[in-house]
Amino acid sequence: PGLKTQPQDTPSPADAAGDFPVSMQVSSKHDILFMMTKMGYLFLFDLHTGTCLFRKRVSPDPIFATCPHKATNGILGVTAGKGAVLSVSINERNLVPFVRDTLKKPELALELAGRLGLPGAEKLYQQRFQGLLQQGNIAGAAQVAATSPGGMLRTQDTIRTFQGLPVQPGQTQPLLQYFQILLKNGNLNKFESVELVRPAIQKGAKGLIENWIKDNKLEASEELGDMLGGLDLKLALQVYRSAGAHDKVVQALNGLGHYDKAMAYSGQVGYQPNYPDMLRKILQTQQPDAAKKAMDMAVQLAQNPNVQLDTAQTVSIFQDFNMIEAATGFLLKVLEGDRREDAILQTRLLEMNLNAGQTKAADAILDRDMFHHFDRNLIANLCERRGLFQRALDLYSNIEDVKRVLTNFNPNPRFQQNLNAQWLVKHLGERLSREDCLECLKQLLQSNPQNLQLVVTVATEYSDTLQPEALIALFDQFNSVRGLFHYLGAIVNTSTDPEVHFKYIEAASNLGKQSRDPTYFAEVERVCKDSTSYDPERVKNFLLEAKLPEPRPLIHVCDRHDFVEELTEYMYPEMMKYIVVYVQKVSPQKTPKVVGKLLDLDCETETIQNLLNSVRSMCPVEPLVEEVEKRNKLRILEPWLEQRVREGSTESATHNAIGKIYVTLNRNAEEWLQTNRFYEPPVLGQFCEKLDPYLAFLCYKRANGPCDADLIRVTNANSLFKDQARYLVERQDMDLWATVLTEENEYKKELVAEVVGTALPDAKDPDKVSSTVKAFMNANLPHELIGLLERLVLQKSIFSENANLQNLLLVTAIRAAPDRVKDFIHRLDKFDGAEIAAIALQEENQLYEEAFLIYKKFDNHLEAVSVLLQRLHSIERAKEFAERVQEPAVWSQLASAQLQDGLIADCIQSYITAQDASNHSAVIEAANGAECYDELVKYLTMARGEMKEPSIDTEIIYALARCERLGDLEEFISQPNVARIQVCGDRLFDDKMYEAAKLLFANIGNNQRLASCHLALSEFKDAVDAAKKANSIFTWKEVNKACVENKEFNLARISGLHIIIKADHLDELIFTYESFGYYEELIVLLEEGILLEEPDAHKGIFSALAIMYSKHRPAALMDHVKAHAKRLQVPKVLGACAQGRHWAEAVFLHRFTEDFDEALKTMINHSPVCFDLEHFLDAAPKVRNQELHYQAITFFAEEQPMELGKLLKVLTEHLDGSRVVHLMQRHKDGIALIMPYLKSIQSKNVATVNEAINKYYVDEEEHEALSESINKFDAYDALDLAQKIEKHELLAFRRIAAKIYENAKRFVQSLELSKKNGMFKDAIDTASNSGDAKLANELLRFFVDEEDKESFCACLYTCYDLIEPSVALEVAWRNGILDFAMPFMIQYVHDSHKKVAELMKRTEPPKDDTGGAFEDDSAGLGFGDGPIAIASTAFNPNMGMGNMGGGMGGGMGMGGGMGGGMGMGGGMGG
Question: Fewest Cβ atoms nearer than 10 Å: which of 606, 626, 1030, 1065?
């Protein structure tokens, strides 16, 4: 086929006559040809017209090759010679203006703009559009508008323009033509979709609309959905979803009853709907399960953390519908957890149920003890009013309230529900304080006597808390003896309070006397008998005064507490039988006191004897005798006592009593005293002293010891010395002798004379003589004793060979006559030499020579030399004695003494002579102290031959070392020995004899100590070698410290490497280096240490090196921690970083350990040195403490404001938008900084965020953005915003304020503001949207008053359905503007006519011819084979579909064979 475009000449420049093309490339996007010539010229041609669009030389060099460049939709070229690469592309923004203005080709510019969708031809399109309209080319104008670039002409103005055009005869309606072209070319925009669907809705063409939506021909919008809502709510829901109108989606789902789906949708899209309104709508349905649905929904919302539901408002909604049960269920779920901040809601829950009469529900809630923060007084008051008295008492805290409840409602026949007694007891005892409880008990007793049992129960169960004295006083106050009895009866068995027991006895006694019931007296008797707590004196006095019919309680009290005399006096003589019963059956042991009291009461002797005979042996004798004897009536007991003796009684008291009677009567008393074995000598002896002293002596002698003092006293007082002397000799009691031979005894001389003259000569028993002599000796009577003993021992007698007497003689001589001791020693030979010598050596005697003489006489050489050494202190005499006797033991004793006197050499010689090594320890110690090591070697050599002791061999070694005989030492240790070489080596080391010690340690292989010796001798290399053999950490530490101290760093490094591998000792090594200040050397050691293989290179080494770097090489710290972070003890290194203020390294470690909280804190607190944006943004979302997010925001706002947006972007999911707003409002321009963030979260529709954004738009005067914000997001204080901007200097903001008032249903304010601003169109729209005929009529009259005829007409047009025709006609007629009201009246007449015709048509009989009927919805709308019919009048939703008919004039039908349909509203003719 031939070319469509005519060939065109290439417009070559004058200087390029010989130029020719070398390459051509086509831009597929623009349909433009790129042509390059040999001389470097570029030509651009439009392929559709062949027009040259551009020419320019782009390179002085030839371009030999070109190719398309997809990235720029241009070309790339390479020049010859230089090889330069050129890129050529089209600037789309300048193409159309260039063609239009420079080339002066508007048609081509228009064609390019339309084809390529490029800007710059707006005016041309507008001119073309207007020109075609003026020419009457409706189709051409519609095509221009439909294909305008960027849809610049596809606006509401264009639609209104087409609506305003008249329909030409025989042609399709202009607006219909426009929509046909749009549908053919593609999809409709928002405004076009609304205008297209409007007549379809009027016709009810639901299927057609569904097809459009299905084919995506319509752009979804909220307005479109609103229109479809009246037709099909499901269809509207589909549109709302597509338009993203979340609020309308939720409303539609609620309208369909899909409340759960509405909630699910809100959660999916992050929309916050008006949940309270949703709840109201659910409840308004009045379905049986509406309340449950609403409650379940409210609970789900309350439990959803992403939903901000006002709990109080929700409860109010339930209450508005009287759904108390649902509100209760909702609150029970919401208030789980018993939080303090829910105190008001807890109160409301209970208050709501109580006020509504739901007392069972309130009682159940309180019974479960779920809440503890509500207003207790308020709820208590309501409980009291509703009859929940227990709950009221449980909640009241004021005692007066509690008393009131107790007074009015317990028990009270007016109320069916009285207080439970068991509960009330527990409440009074446990919930109230002691004082309050007592007050309540007092109130109970005062208000109603029937409360006595309750009071008694409380007092009984809580007696310890309320205290018995207070409770007793309470019962006494009301004179409640019975209450007191029952209360005390319950506690008396466990109480130890005397008052409790007394008051119980008193109460029981009084009740018994009042009621004559013996049960009470039995209780009195029981307590008196068993209790141990009452005050006996008080109880006795009470019982004596009470004079009970039964004396048994008094008997028990007096018997138990020894009030027998008072009891006897009380019962004698009227109740003598009770006395007899008492002594026979109750307390026979108290008979003596009874008898005594009866004697005092002058009772007859026969009565008393009969009483005693009735008791017989049960009566104790001793107290009876005492009682009778005090009254000088002992003889009346003689028959009774003799009867006891005849019965075989051996009781001492019985025999004492009858003995007193026999002594008194002098009835064979001496014989009886000597033969009777049962009486007590002290008792009868004392009794006989006044009657017969000798009888008393016999009694005391009969005791044989216990009565010796009384015997001595009686014999002295009555000069019975002979009897006394014989008794003393026979007794042989040294203590007794000592008492009578003292200087204080004034009768000693007479006694001694009787002993020497009578008692001792008569004695034949040597023991008695010996004991008497001892007594004299102890009494210091030596001279008398010596003479006696000489006669007995030295003269021939039976006692001459008596060893004891010889001993006594020598002892007496030693003490009394020391000068005669040597003579007695020579004359006597039967004495005990060892004992006498010991006495002579005593300190008080000091007869050392006599003692030495005794030891020599008895050949006790060891004791003899001991006397010489220890007593006479004569080593010379001892040495002579030793040489004479030649006994080793003597030499050893002598050596010991020499040792003590410091004669070490003599001592050692003596021990050698004695061949005694037993005391080698002392000798060694002394020799060491005196440094006599040569002599010590000799002694130890001898000792080593006697015994094999480690200490001996050890000391030989030490002595050889001290003598510096190292050769002998080395020879000795090389031979077998038992020396403690280790101990000796340590000792030599301590004495700083390192060479000798080195030999010893080397001998036993103790490399640890050997290393120490080398160190002491400054042999450091040898020390290291020894340490290697020892392989001990402690040795290495010692070597290391010495090498460091002596600056032997190489050797110190070797030893240090063995130390640092032990984590426990690393700190000590570091301290060693640091104490000497060798930090670099330590770092070198640690750096070498980290190169060791695991496990030697442990974390401690890496951490220590990091710490050293932090102190001394900060520059190396970061590289170290980055390279070895996994092998660091991070907390320890972090501490060093903090101390050295190395914050960047600290941040790295925090991030490494995922402690992002601390990392963030550190970067915030020390931002100048460690802040890193990338690290901060990475760590911020990972912190655990959410508060740090807001601290970070504050930090960025202050120090990094330009990066705040990045922070907010990464934290969006973690932030509370409201809190961010409040936080940034404190900073100047804070909201401006976070606007991108606020816009990103505005979809959540949070009030605080919306208000902040709206305020920003107001401050920045961005009215379009503000309008869009308030249209999309309704969660803000609308009225507040409207009030702020209704006086704004910019009209656009004032219009927005009017719109806000309109949306808030404040149509009056909106109208006034629009009228004030002169925005009459807005006022008209507001009046129409209000649906208020009154407002519409007022606005109509306003336009009349303003003489604004056009606005008057527009108001009639827009508010067609609100204005009564009669009013419009009247106003127009009165003001001469009928012409402007005529379109309104014509429309009204037309609509009325249509309605009548429609009614007539419906009532006509059916026709066979279907040509006039719509075959389907599509045909009815003109979308069959013909064009669509759309009215050019204003849309009126109340109008029927009759206005969609034929063209102008006489009922011409439109559409494919529509027939004679109704004419369009625009048809003004016939």
Answer: 606
Q: How far apart are CA 1195 and CA 1188, in angstroms?
A: 10
Element (H, E) at 126: helix 122-135
Residue closest to 1157 by CA, chosen among 1132, 1125, 1186:
1186
The Cα-based distances of 893 to 905, 911, 914, 926, 936 in angstroms read 15, 9, 10, 16, 19
pLDDT digits (tens, 9 = 90+) for 628-678: 888 888 888 878 888 888 888 888 888 888 888 888 888 888 888 888 888
Rounded Cα distance between 111 and 651, Å, is 155
Query: Quick one: which of 1435, 1470, 1430 has its CA closest to 1454?
Result: 1430
DSSP strand pairing (63-69 vs 32-37): unpaired
- CA-to-CA dists, residue 1079 to 813, 1055, 1092, 1099, 1125, angstroms: 90, 17, 20, 20, 23
Q: Which amino acid is it at 309?
A: L
Reduce the DSSP state of residue 42 to 3 states and report it.
strand
Write the pLDDT tens digit of every residue in 1443-1459. 333 333 333 333 333 33
Query: Nearest to residue 514, comparing CAs of 546, 541, 545?
Result: 546
Least confident of 69-73, 360-364, 814-818, 1211-1215: 814-818
Determine contact, residues 491/466, Cβ cutoff 8 Å.
no
Pull the structure tokens for residue 80.
């010859």
Mean pLDDT, all residues of the chain: 82
Q: What share of the chain is helix, strand, coil (3-state, %, to 5)?
A: 70, 5, 30
Q: Which tens digits make up the pLDDT trace of 589-640?
A: 888 989 888 888 888 888 888 888 888 888 898 898 888 888 888 888 878 8
672 Cβ contact list (under 8 Å, min separation 6): 659, 662
> DSSP letters of 669-725?
HHHHHHH--SS-HHHHHHHHHTT-HHHHHHHHHHHSSTTHHHHHHHHHHTT-HHHHH
At 27, phi and psi to the nearest 5?
-85, 110
Residue that the structure tokens 């990094």 belong to = 1200
pLDDT at position 1436, please? 40
- Mean pLDDT across the stretch 376-387? 86
Burial class (CB in 10 A: 0-12, 13-18, 19+), 296: middle
CA 1390 to each of CA 79, 1400, 1420, 1442: distance values in angstroms, whole numbers, following the listed order: 78, 15, 20, 9
Angle 1339-1345-1349 (CA atoms, 0-180°, nearest 5)? Answer: 80
Q: What are the distances in angstroms from CA 907 to CA 404, 873, 917, 947, 1129?
A: 109, 16, 12, 19, 68
- Checking if the pLDDT of 387 tops 70, the result is yes
Residues in CB range of 93: below 8 A, 6 or more apart: 118, 119, 120
CA dist., res. 914 & res. 927, Å (int): 18
**Quick one: pLDDT at residue 784?**
66
pLDDT computed for residue 1429 by the predictor: 34
Distances (CA, A) of 587 to 531, 535, 555, 601, 869: 18, 21, 10, 20, 80
Q: Give me the amino acid identity at 88.
A: V
Q: In sequence order, which residues have a C-beta less than 8 Å from that of residue 73 and are 6 or more positions away? A: 27, 28, 29, 30, 89, 90
